[in-house]
Amino acid sequence: MASLASPQPSGELTGWTRWANNNRKWLFAAPAMTFVGALIIFPLAWTIYLSLTDAEGSVRAESEFIGFANYLEVLSDTDRFWPAVLRTVGFTGVALLFEIVLGMAVALLLWRPFRGERWVRVAILLPLVATPVAVGMMWRLIFDPNIGMANQILGWVGIGPQPWLAGQHSALPTTIFIDIWQWTPMVVLILLAGLTSLSNEPDEAARVDGASAWQRFRHVTLPLLMPTVIVAILLRGIDALKTFDILYATKGRGGGSFHEVETLNVYAYGLSFDYNEYGISSTVLIIFFLIIIGSMWALTSRRKKGAQ
Amino acid sequence: MVAALGLSACGGGGDDSGGSDTLRVTLVNHVWTENIKKALPEFEQQSGLKVEVTQLGEDQLSDQYNVKLNAGSSDIDVMMYRPLQEGKLFAKNGYLTDLTDRAKEDSAFDFADFQGPPVQATTYEEKLVGIPIITEQEVLYYRKDLLQKSGFSAPPKTLDELKTMAAKVEADNPGTAGFVARTGKAAAVTQFSSFLFSFGGDFVDGSGKASVNTEQAKQAYAYYGGLLREHGPENISTDMSWSEAMAIFTQGKAAFYTEANSLYKNATDPAKSKVSDSVGFAPFPAGPAGSKPYNIPSWALGVNEGSENQANAWKFIQWAAGKDQTLAQQKGGVPGARTSVWANPEGIATYPQDLAEAIKVSTENGVGHDRPLVVKVAESREIVGQPIVDAITGKDVAGSAATANEAFQKLLDDEK
Question: Which residues of A touch B238 (CB under 8 A)?
């Protein structure tokens, strides 16, 4: 009898255990679902709700449900909103282009082993490990128009001082430069990983056929590397769209006196933390969210097409 | 001191005596905070409380309050805040506890000792919501050596003289600017205010209407922007806050600088300033309407309405804003808001003599605000600051002032 009492897997399941067994796929997913619910879905839903109200001053203060009035206001705002959209797109586009091209060039250089390769790799990765805010402050000092190092160095070679971050028209290009400086190494890392995983045979075959270095890159390496390039564009693109820290650390609130580097992120931040306009700010964030989702979708669908 | 604490502890508390022994205090990076942190063990010993200090930069502090107070958090007891920047908003939202009874019924605290204008700034709808701890007046910082070299025996008394002297010093010392000041749109507003007042203008007129396009205001914008454009640093930018402007001055690259007196240690401390031994201070130069610098409370202590430890929070304020601490702070270089401390020779003994005199003039002629007194201060500063940067970059000041006035009036109307 005693031996019969030993665990019988299916027969002894009752009540809670049976329920747990039947619903185990939900049970195991529950912690993750709670996490997603609490940290992603709730804030998103709350932001959507706020974007439909006229909340300002304090989130706890009474606010009125006003439907899509905020959306109409934001989308017809050619003063701050649309310029911010243009800056966001411009910043991302230009930074991404340079980062991919430069990143590809550096990755190709590092692809084949050479003397001192380790040191070069460390040096290239340095910007990546620094905090963006610290990077921003550092460049702000270097680019100070009066006492900064950049203008002193230009002075030594006989070039007049440049306004850099201080100029109304040079500030955005300068922040793009800082972004490129900091994030190209990440692209190098991704592309290098892609390059090292490529098989050598197609390249060697092309070499035997007498293809030049450029021809081999253009017609062999690049097409093979394309999936990795798209991944790099996707990761860096989303990141660049969301850039905040470098802009905030270099130009402060509002993106400078003429809003010269005010992207959507900086604008939404200012609306919340400076103006306490929670309704409008949420609206801008939701529109921004849709822009990011949209561009992600466009890129990934291209990637699928490319793979086919 | 111990007796004073004991006395006031009896008078102050009562309604929420069940508070924790740990007091959470949020403070900004400031000389005041450094001084108070050194004195904290004394308070902890006397009161039996443990004080946990959170210290943040100005912007981070403001963001922190925005998030925590909005959420009704109870984990801030005492908060250091800017009465002119966030005061109205916080009071309107009910974030600040009414301290009227606590302050006025406490004889040892001697509330009547506080200067009028600062108290006015921490009062909302006749309720006292904060205790002013740091005051600021705008003064003129200048380089004695450069003035002497150009043959001037005294600092300028009027804004006209300031312009003439700045031009002369600049001409005599190539590479050195005649004048430097803040140029960032919102950052410059507070320091520009003294120019505006001295030209006879204000942000809002007597009837509550926006008045940044009056003749006086336009002259003030043109003067401030023009002085910076013509005699400012060679590569003038439009994003300087005090830290950048101060750096130019302390690097020896400017002759005159108008700024808050509370920052004077940056200029006189040899560790921070290359010109520490040649810095002079003078009262704000007179404009057509006289010398009218601002005289404001820049920081105050308040109690979070959501705090469950309000009685102990008041004990901390009693001590930190009390007579002894205020005197100690003032000796440590932080101008306070108590009349008795200014009257006490000890209270100004550690200041450079010319600075003490300049402050005296400023407290007599001073205006109690340095930015528009509205709820949406950040937004209003950006609006009234636009003509400043437009003037610096040589754009049409009158047009810019008219646009700013219209936008500012709209903001005022919205707040009604």
Answer: 166, 168, 256-258
Compute CA distances A144 → A140, A150, A193, B9, B310, whole Å.
Answer: 6, 8, 37, 52, 46
Burial (CB < 10 A; 0-12, 13-18, 19+), residue B381, is buried
Averaged pLDDT, groups of 10, chain A, 308 residues long: 50 79 89 91 94 90 91 95 96 96 93 83 86 91 88 91 90 96 94 91 90 91 92 92 93 90 95 93 95 86 65
What pLDDT was estimated at residue A10? 53
Q: Chain B contacts of A58, Cβ < 8 Å?
A: 69-70, 93, 95
Q: In whole angstroms, what is the distance from residue B395 CA to residue B113 CA?
A: 47
Considering only CB atoms, B382 lies closest to which of A145, A168, A254, namely A254
Q: Is A148 left (phi over 0), alpha (psi -120 to 50) or beta?
A: beta
Residues 6+ apart with CB under 8 A from B300: B80, B81, B82, B83, B87, B118, B121, B122, B130, B131, B132, B133
Question: Any idea how long chain A is?
Answer: 308
Chain A nearest C-alpha distance from B93 (Å): 6
> Under an 8 A CB cutoff, do B235 and A163 touch?
yes
Q: What is the pLDDT of residue B6?
A: 41
Q: Which residues does B176 contact at the CB level (< 8 Å), separation at least 6?
A: B146, B169, B170, B252, B253, B254, B255
The residue with tokens 């200029």 is B267
Residues 6+ apart with CB under 8 A from B370: B84, B136, B138, B189, B190, B191, B193, B194, B294, B296
> In angstroms, what CA-CA distances link A249 with A140, A258, B331?
8, 16, 34
CB B283 within 8 A of CB B194: no
User: CA geometry: angle at A134 spanning B69 and B241, to 5°?
Assistant: 70
Chain A CB within 8 Å of residue B385 CB: yes
Instruction: Quote the CA–CA distance of B203 and B218 in Å, as a whole number.
Output: 11
State pLDDT tens for residues A207-231.
999 999 899 999 999 999 999 999 9
Alpha carbon distance B70, A61 (integer Å) = 9
Which segments in chain B show pLDDT lower than 70? 1-18
Q: What is each CA distance from B275 to A119, A149, B141, B165, B272, in whole angstroms? A: 43, 21, 11, 19, 9
Q: How many other C-beta atoms can be found within 10 angstroms of the C-beta atom of residue A87?
A: 22
